[in-house]
Design brief:
Elements: H1 2-5, H2 10-14, E1 23-34, E2 41-49, E3 53-60, H3 61-68, E4 77-88, E5 91-101, E6 116-117, H4 120-123, E7 137-140, E8 152-154, E9 165-167, E10 193-201, E11 205-209, E12 213-223, E13 228-234, H5 235-241, E14 250-254, E15 257-260, E16 272-275, E17 281-285, E18 313-323, E19 327-330, E20 336-346, E21 350-357, H6 358-363, E22 373-382, E23 388-390, E24 396-399, H7 404-414, E25 422-423, H8 445-455, E26 459-470, E27 484-487, E28 496-498, E29 502-504, E30 511-512, E31 516-526, E32 531-537, H9 538-545, H10 549-558, H11 560-569, E33 575-586, E34 589-601, H12 604-616, H13 622-651
Helix pairs in contact: 10-11
């Protein structure tokens, strides 16, 4: 049976012949490492057999998951698509990074043949070739090193020698074909080399102490297909490498110190981290278009964040519903720091405030499209404003990532799911989402006016309505007003100038020939009880009109009928509006005006259920009706009792005493004495 289904290959695998896509059988499975969250093993040790001999192998990443999910079982036949062979002391073992279940499997899963253990001592060193402990060798369909590498940085030893020199080496460059997967790194092998993409780079931080004086440090996070890991650089090495390392670029890195990760500062799912030293070699991979490892996320629904403790680290995927412009604040130490706040929601029915800092805040796009989904990795849970999220050192974000969950969230949002979310944060921003309200509560324009007029403060409400008119012309019927304004592409403030002379931003000093355009659309909202004048700003204008302001302006300049059709489609379309309104006074005239905070298509199934719930409130059970009737009659019954008591008091008043007249025995009324009238 073994001869029919397996071909001898174990000897070739461990003698460095490295056959392409060999088929082997798993004859033993053992868990050797567990993930930090304690859920599933991240690495599994197996014995692989060709029916005659067997050797040791380690499954990482997705390969380990195939075992835990029982896609691959004991005695299954597998095809090794991507693997490397490492040597530790006198033993060799294979690290399997990609495998597939063989199309042909035994009728009954059982061990094929009687394989004997691979003789690692004699087989480790082929004839005529010395053994090099710790040097990984790639096999299968591992990526081939590109012919044109970028410059390499050789870090000389300490003691006055030159630190990191990012220059071409006289010797042969590192070979990507010998790359070790990040998940295969271990403290017992110091001769390794990884090929990884930079996910995130921290700012340079400086510190001072009595022992070392002024020092600096920075870190960057890298990933490959198997895992992710943090790399730190200190002092001279940090100063040399910080301007060189670029996010999104791929590097070959070897000879660093591998040590246990400090979980106080690292949020990555890896038990180790790397510290660069003066023996480190770092080389840019210039042509790495075929190397695009995905960021390893572990998403938490926003609705579950309320139960997470403060300072916990989470990954979140959500629709960005509101983004503020990047602002600069001064810290207590006098240092300027960039800050940006936003609100995100997901299909758990919850929303939360999120804050980015520093380069993360400045690099976040100012204008996101409608229903843009952003993935955040490594956010910190805080108690600020009840519950919120904050970026920290190592936080990574990705706009519209290529994930199945991205499309699911977009469909949920476009289907009106955002109209019923509950905020976990008490928003304090001036342009924020307002106070926490019941997501099922619906208002009318009349109720909104009464609340705002009675309190004299800002009133919030959600109501069903339509846009009856876009106020794009003056009341005197003069020149048409645009639905946008010329904005600074840097800070979004209004710019002066025109397309001929150029534009200038008086706020941040930017100047250029081309500006951006942002919506500021005055309109009339109408519902069953009345109307209100409101303004839709950039994000909400995009939701209403279905196009960005730049696109609509271009359409108006090039195709006026098509522009008119877009504007017409925005009216008389039932939508769910979240509104912030207050009484404003201009030229001694007061007017109740609103600002649209969100506009989403009506989910008629959801709204129908809410209407049914309102109707049922009027259908009280008979017991409740009886109790209500008794309660309503109680005051009247008390009045009747009091009236009877007063009437009884009047009737029982004692009369004046009179002479008693003895009645006749017959009980008839006494008769007067008429004897004095006798003759």
């Amino acid at each position: 049976m073994a001869a029919n289904m397996l071909t001898p290959c174990i000897q070739n695998i461990f003698r460095d012949a490295l056959p392409s896509k060999p088929t082997v059988q798993i004859i033993e499975i053992k868990q050797i490492a567990t993930a930090a969250n304690g859920e599933a093993p991240t690495r599994i040790k197996v014995h692989i057999s060709d029916g005659e001999q067997y050797g040791l192998a380690v499954l990482t990443g997705e390969c380990a998951k195939m075992v835990t999910s029982e896609t691959v079982k004991l005695h299954s036949l597998i095809v090794l698509k991507n693997y490397v062979v490492n040597q530790l002391a006198n033993s060799k073992f294979a690290i399997i990074m990609e495998m597939a279940v063989a199309e042909t499997q035994p009728a009954e899963l059982e061990k094929l043949g009687e394989p004997v253990k691979w003789d690692t001592v004699q087989a480790a060193t082929p004839q005529g070739k010395p053994s090099q402990a710790g040097s990984p060798v790639t096999g299968g369909t591992s990526r081939i090193a590109p012919s044109n590498f970028g410059a390499a940085a050789a870090v000389g030893p300490a003691g006055g020698r030159a630190p990191v020199n990012y220059q071409p080496l006289a010797s042969s460059p590192l070979s990507a074909a010998k790359a070790t997967p990040i998940d295969g790194l271990n403290p017992y092998s110091n001769k390794w080399m990884i090929k990884a993409r930079v996910m995130n780079k921290s700012d340079m931080r400086t510190f001072s102490n009595a022992k070392t004086g002024d020092s600096s440090v920075f870190s960057f996070d890298v990933c490959d297909e198997s895992a992710e890991i943090r790399i730190s650089a200190w002092r001279e090495i940090a100063e040399r490498l910080h301007p060189i390392i670029e996010v999104g670029k791929t590097y070959l890195i070897s000879k660093g110190q591998l040590k246990p990760a400090n979980k106080r500062y690292s949020t990555l799912n890896n038990a180790y981290e790397i510290t660069l030293n003066f023996d480190t070699t770092l080389q840019l991979v210039a042509d790495a278009d075929d190397f695009k490892p995905k960021v390893h996320y572990s998403f938490v629904p926003i609705g579950d964040i309320a139960s997470r403790p403060a300072n916990a680290t989470v990954d979140v995927l959500g629709v960005v519903t509101d983004v503020s412009a990047a602002t600069t604040i001064n810290t207590k130490t006098g240092r300027e720091l960039t800050k940006r706040t936003m609100k995100i929601a997901d299909d758990s029915g919850s929303a939360i405030e999120l804050t980015l800092w520093g380069t993360q805040a400045s690099s976040f796009p100012d204008d996101l499209g409608n229903a843009s989904v952003v993935a955040f990795k490594g956010l910190r849970v805080t108690d600020w404003n009840q519950r919120s999220l904050g970026a920290q050192n190592g936080t990574v974000f990705e706009v519209n990532p290529e994930l199945d969950a991205t499309e699911r969230l977009k469909s949920w949002w476009e289907g009106g799911g955002g109209g019923t979310t509950v905020s976990l944060s008490q928003d304090t921003r001036g342009s924020g989402a307002g106070p926490k309200i019941d997501p099922d509560a619906r208002s009318t324009t009349t109720e909104l006016f009464e609340r705002g007029n009675a309190s004299g403060e800002v009133a919030y409400g959600t109501f069903r309505g339509v846009v009856s008119k876009l106020l794009l012309s003056s009341s005197q019927g003069g020149e048409e007003k645009p639905a946008w304004y010329s904005a600074c592409p840097k800070c979004n403030k209004k710019v002066v100038g025109d397309e001929t002379s150029g534009h200038t931003c008086e706020s941040c000093g930017w100047s250029g020939a081309e500006c951006s355009y942002r919506y500021i659309v005055p309109l009339v909202l109408l519902d069953a009880e009345g109307s209100i004048v409101a303004t839709a700003f950039n994000d909400q204008g995009t939701q209403l009109l279905g196009k960005k302001a730049d696109e609509l302006k271009r359409l108006k300049d090039e195709n006026r009928p098509a522009y008119d059709a877009v504007v017409q489609r925005a009216t008389w379309r039932p939508m769910l509006y979240r509104l912030r309104a207050k009484m404003e006074t201009y030229n001694d005239q007061s007017r109740f005006k609103g600002a649209i905070m969100s506009a989403t298509p009506i989910n008629f199934a959801t709204e129908g259920k809410l209407l049914l719930a309102d109707i049922k409130k009027y259908e009280l059970p008979s017991a409740d009706l009886e109790a209500a009737a008794v309660a309503s009659l109680a005051p009247k019954q008390e009045f009747v009792k009091q009236e009877r008591k007063e009437r009884k008091a009047k009737v029982t008043v004692k009369p004046e005493p009179m002479d008693e007249v003895e009645p006749e025995a017959t009980g008839s009324q006494p008769q007067p004495d008429l004897s004095q009238f006798d003759d």
